[in-house]
Structure formats: C-alpha cells, structure tokens
Amino acid sequence: MKKLCALLASAVLAAAAIPRFGPEQAVSAAGTVKIMPVGDSITFGMGENGGYRKYLYDTLKKDGYDIDMVGPEGSNSASANGITYDDNHAGYSGYQIKEEPSWAQQQGTSGSLYNTLKQKNAVKQYQPDIILLIIGTNDMTANRSMDACASDLRAVVDYMLGDLPSGGVIFMGSIPEFTAYGGNAQRVANYNNTVKSVAEEYGKAGKNVKFADVHGCLNGTADLGNDQLHPNGGGYKKMGNFWAETVEDYLKNGSTTVTPGTTEPVTTTPPQTTTDPDGYIAHYTFENGDEDFTGRGGASVKTASEAYAGSKSLLCSGRTDGWNGAAHALPSGCSAGGTYSFSAAVKYTSGSASDTFHFTLQYSSGSTSYKKIATETVTKGDWVQLANANFEIPAGATDCTIYIETDSSTNDFYVDEIIIAKAGTTISGPKPAKYAVADVNGDGFTNAVDLSLAKAGMIKGSFSASGAKKGADVTQDGDVTKDDITWFVKYLTKQETTIPEPPPKPVGQMRSIEEYTPVAKEMLVEREKNGSTSRRNGVTYSEVKKYQYRSKKANKNKNVNVMLPPGYDESKQYPVLYVLHGFFENEDRMILTGNNPPIPTREIICNAWADGEAEDMIVVVPFVFTSATMNDATDFSDPGSNEGYDNFVDDIVDSLMSWVEENFSVATGRENTAVTGFSMGGRESLQIGMKYGDKFGYVGAICPAPGASGAWKWNSPDETPA
Description:
Blueprint (H helix, E strand, L loop, with lengths): L3 H10 L18 E8 L1 H4 L8 H10 L3 E4 L8 E3 L2 E3 L4 E2 L10 H6 L5 H7 L2 H5 L3 E5 L2 H5 L4 H18 L5 E5 L11 H20 L4 E4 L20 H21 L28 E3 L9 E3 L3 E5 L8 E5 L7 E5 L9 E9 L6 E11 L3 E12 L4 E9 L5 E9 L6 E10 L25 H13 L5 H7 L9 H11 L20 H11 L20 E8 L4 E8 L12 E5 L20 H10 L7 E5 L16 H8 L1 H16 L9 E6 L1 H12 L6 E5 L20
Parallel strand pairs: 1-2, 1-5, 1-6, 6-7, 7-8, 22-23, 22-24, 24-25
Antiparallel strand pairs: 3-4, 9-19, 10-13, 11-12, 12-19, 13-18, 14-17, 14-19, 15-16, 15-18, 20-21, 21-23
Helix pairs in contact: 1-15, 3-10, 8-9, 11-12, 11-13
C-alpha cells in the first residue's frame, strides 16, 4: 500500500401523526382555550428567548382563537423577535422525565419533571385544556434505557390525567434531532418510537392522549442551533407552527369544537376510496405515457422500453442529486391519517454495483416534511421491489407527493408498476437475485440458462447485472473467458461435478520494523503539501455511502460509512483502510463532518489517488462504540463507556471485516489491511494492532488516548505489523 503510513497520518491530522379526536369529549366550546407547554429546555426556549411558544401563541391569536398560555413559570407577557406573547409555561432546563439527574442530586435540588409538576401542583392549579409535552432529551444524554423512559412517561401522564379537567387532552411530542453529548439519529428514533407507543397505549385504553410527531416537522440537524442540542430560530418557528396546526386540527375536528367566531360543532365526512378493476387505489403501468409523473429537482422523466411488466417503464434521468427523482401527487383515493399498501419496481444499469433506493412521501404539516415509505438496496441490472403493506400517511398532512429517489447517487433509473392498495395488501414484485458462482441469473440453480447467459455476456463484454458476471466467472480470475464456458458445458454434460477452487490471492511484501522505520521516516512530513486538503478541478471525489452491519459483540446493527475508489470494479480486489473516530463521536466524524470546517479526509485520499501517491483502496469508517447494553458513551470516567470502545478491538475482526469482505471486492490478508484512528480511535487502533497483528499489516495511531494495554509481542516476525 504505497505511502500508506504517511497518508494515514495526513488523513487524520487534518484533524405527526396526530390521530383525530379520540373516545373522550373534546375541549369545551367555551371560548378561551388554556394551553400548558410542558417539558425541558426546549419548552423553556433555550437558545432563543421564548423558543417555539411565541410562534404557537402568535399563530393561534392571528387565526382568531382566544388562547391563555398557563403554567407555573413565566410572567404572563413577554416579547421576542417582534412578537408579543403570553409566556406562561412549565419548561425546565436540564430536567429528565422522572429520574433525578446527577447534577440535581449533587446540588440537592430537583431535576425531575414529574416531581416538580407534582410539587407545584401545576395541572390541578392551572387546569389546562391542552397539554403539549416534549420531554426526554436529557434522559437520552444520560443513556437511560427505553423501558425506563417508557415507565417514567407513564408516571407523568398518569399524574396529568388525574388532575386534568374533563375533556382535556395531552399531546405527547417526539423530541428533535440532536448530536451533542452522544446524541445520534438512531437513539432519537428509538426514543420517539417509545413515546409514540406509550401514547397509543393510552389511546387504546380510551384516554385522551395523542402522539404528535414534532421531530417530523424539523429538517434533522439542519434545524439545530450551534450547541447541537436545541433547535435554532428557524427550528423553533417550525415547532411553533406545527403545534399551532396540531391544536387547530384538534379543535376543528373533535366531537365538540372551538372555531374562530362560532361554537357550532363541525362534522366531517371521510373521503371515499375508489379502486381500479384490480382492486387497486392507483396503478401506474406507463404503457400509455408518463401517467402525469414529473421530474423532481433537475431530473426529467419519459417512458422507456426497459420494463418489469408489460412493455414500458418510466426512465428518470438528468439527476444531479440523490433527492432528484420521479414524482406524482398522491392520488385522491388516499387521505391523511389513512394506512395503505405501496409498491414500486425499480432498476438501474450504470454506476456502482449496488445503490440504495427510497420510495418517499413529501407532505406539508406546518412545514415541508418527508417520510420514507420503503427503502431497499438494489443490485445494478436487477429489478427490485420497494414495498410497504402498511404505511400510514400522517394525520393532517396536505400537499402530498410520492416519489422515487436514491440515497445520494445520481444514476439514471427505471421505475415500473407503482401500485397503491388498501392496507395489508401483499403486492407481488421482483425480489433481489441471489447470485453465486455458476449461477448467472441468481435463481439458485446451474443449468442451460446460465450457460447461455454466460456465453452472451462473454461475447458482448458485459452483463446486465453486476452479480451476473460473478456467477459466470467460474474460474474466479476476474474475467469471463472460454475456460468458464467450457466448465459450464462439462458440468451440464456431467463431465464436471465441482466448482473450481479460486486462484490464490496475491501476497503483498511485508517488511520488518527495522526495515520499515527508515523508509517511513523519509515519507513523513510535518505539514501536508499545498492543495492536498482541498477540492481540485479534474479530480473525482468518491461518494461516501452509509450502511449497517450486524455486530455479534453488541447483538445489534451498527452504522458504517464506506468510500470506494473512482471506477471501482468488482472484478478487481482492493486493500482496505479502517478509520476510527474518537470519544463522543460517530461514523460521520472522520469523513463527513468533523470540526468546522469538516475534516478533509475524503479530499486527502482522493487527491492522493489522483496524484498516484496512494493505490486504490476501500475506506471504511465505522461507528466504533460497541455495547449490548449502551448505545453510546456517556462519560470519560464511565467504565461502561470505555469498555464500549475497547469492545471494538474484537468487533472489527468478529463482525465488521467479514461484512466488508462479503459486500465488497477485497484483497484480504494483513498486507492489504490497515487501521488508523484519532484519540480514542487511535487507542483502539493500537490495541487492534497488538492483538491482531496477524490480520493488520499497517497500524496508525494519531494522538491516541491513554489506556492502551498489552505489549508489542508476536509469536513470529511474520505476525509483526509494519
């Protein structure tokens, strides 16, 4: 791996669904509606004075509602950003749901929302008609389990219901995205699912408790403030508008309603669903045109003769970003709050060996929001189905559009047989082929069809699906030749009964530490050369794609980013570089985000490839923290947090390396495998090198954290890494 150690050093040093009115009576139509915002610092408004509450109040007042914001905090009147509002609330910075946080215990005060609300007799004293509850971010930073959070949420809701006036309602909101203090998208999603589950428990029991997807109204981390914990001004405004729409929707659609200028009940009739002759609500075949589909973003669409069923499909081309795709308004037979079965067949024929496709819903709910209907990894050249038999359209959603997109690539693609049916309908569609050596069409058998496909592919010089070439290359030498065709003929005539063994993999040259040190010393520099960390014209900067692998050590899926070299060819085998992040960080830190500006790891490596200073390799950047009981580190001094990082020493060998080798074309062996990392990642790199010198020939530790244990001892010089 040419100049690999120098490259390692440079790379690192560039260091809601709101259900309609439920079983209990809605808010009285008496005129004034009392609203109590309840929660932690997001409700308090940390980061921008008043947070979302001013926008909630201002919107409802402008729409003609008589609103009284109530709660034990605030002074009845405040103003911020040109908005005068009623600022009473029950928001407490740093508070957890019920458990007293460590800081409160140390200070001898309370940091429990449950205890504080009871102590202040908040619900009984202020008698809110509507409670807007957002709580849980601090429980996530404290690494509390989902079961414990669910139990605490029930305690808070039970207390509120006990003192809530007749007809009152509690909206349990999901929490916004955050990345500070170990926050990550998966943990936030797990917690929000817990909130939704608890809310639905109460709804099924006949209680007026509803789930509100606050998280869904925000644009992820783009709406975070500089502290990466609280929403920014734009995020708070979206939250305020979302809550206002939620409240108005509830007041307008309950069995008794409060509407501006009237107290008359409003009765609504559910839209009627229509179906086609096949029983489908919508069925787009593209046999007679584009079916009113349009290009999203810079994309264009037109019918094409490549088809999954019939003779036509829709080709989407001219894409300049992953979100560009083929779009259509949600048909009138579907309504907000309804659940339906969705299906689409997709295929692409150029680009990388596999790609991630999404079937997505865009809708308005106070702001533009997005919800994935289905996601699949698609192999190049294969038709694959995107399907979800029970997809719920968010209640209150308007301006709905369905579309097909990819994760981040700009490949042209085909889409066919887009179908929407009633919930629970199983819609047949293409399944991913499972290719293997001697199985060219991925049907699980070796027969004359495979011989015909192998011969046609050899003559043409290409195969319709990337996996098909692997199936045809029986000799496993990287090319489909007459030798492969001869084997098929002999196998089908029973002259051969076994698949040939693959040729031995090339063995790189290793040097002893004594030989390698003076060579490495000559390559090392104190500063990277000019232009190596910035983007340059004419250089291809590879796409970084996110995947998940199954960790045996953690007994769950973990995220990993992978960057392939430009022109990645499955018929070739590539060395692998593993890059490890530091404490409180994740798989994005060393390759996508980092400090401000981002760490230019991608630029350094791609520029080195372009300059011929590094050979093509596969770059793997995993989420290092590995634990069956914790989702992320919580404190430097916490034994479980340190153990979670040290567990990766075995996880990389037990789980990650095998996943990489199964999914990419890898040159195995220590001479083709390198590991490096920064800070805590540097410590783990050292420990990986100490324990698995027979598997890692190159080890780079940049500013390693203290605590590495072991000794640089190996059974033989052959096991010693360079």
